[in-house]
Amino acid sequence: MEHQDVKQTVQDQFGRTASAYVKSDTHAHGTDLALLVEWLAPTKTALALDIATGGGHVAKSLAPHVHSVFATDLTKSMLAAAREHIRQERHQNVQFVLADAESLPFLDQTFDLVTCRIAAHHFPHPDEFVKEVSRVLKPGGAFLLIDNIAPEEPHLAAFLNGFERLRDSGHVRCLSLSEWTQLMESTGLHIEKQRVRKKPFEFLPWVRRMAQSEQQIEEVERCFINATAEQQKYFDLTFAEGRLASFRTDECMILCKKTS
């Protein structure tokens, strides 16, 4: 699929599922939201940028701790859903901007903080995304990335990206931790802190958030059922009454500082 087609697919899919992402337990109530604020240690004078804000959960978490937040997203209806969600919480210091993560509409060295959570696997050019993050950050500014990552082993990475694409045609690729590290270090972003955790998913809520038919759900489930013993062990597949119940993937949280 051409990269522009991928972005159109992402807009179409997240346009349909905007309210589901605002309400999703995985996105709305993750413990990483509080940890994100702790790691960034924002100040009341800070100007923050949340890239691919989705349901607006990071922007909402940062809003009480900073001067202002710019929440951006590629999908207009998703941005509108995030705005409604955040304004219900009575935060008045969040601005909403339609923007492509790989071509941000901001001047160089604008932001003290940049975040991107559970979104980068949809970006066709992650290298361009990281360059844009570095460009808009002030020297000494902080960038915090949270995303699902692929195992370093190619066959396990291929399995992960395979079932993700079956569920979500806007999925491009989960990068490995080593790939993210290389991209960041090559653009003047020095890694200060990181963690990798196993992230659990209940299969049906996860698949129904993006799947458009029962046939598609069955196809995704069949992919898991046909997994090798090694794949089943790595992704911790659990079954109940012959159906897939849950699985786990790796998620990284990386804090960087712009060196110059």
Automatic annotation (TrEMBL):
Classification via InterPro entries: Diverse_substrate_MTase, Methyltransf_11, SAM-dependent_MTases_sf
The keyword Nucleotide-binding is assigned to this record: no
Top-level taxon: Bacteria
One GO term (biological process): methylation
Pfam family, one: Methyltransf_11
GO MF annotations, alphabetized: methyltransferase activity
UniProt keyword terms in alphabetical order: Methyltransferase, Transferase
Keyword Disulfide bond: no
Residue ranges constituting the Methyltransferase type domain according to the UniProt record: 49-144
Family from the record: Belongs to the methyltransferase superfamily.
PANTHER family per UniProt: METHYLTRANSF_11 DOMAIN-CONTAINING PROTEIN, METHYLTRANSFERASE TYPE 11 DOMAIN-CONTAINING PROTEIN
Entry protein name: Methyltransferase domain-containing protein
Source organism phylogeny: Bacteria, Bacillati, Bacillota, Bacilli, Bacillales
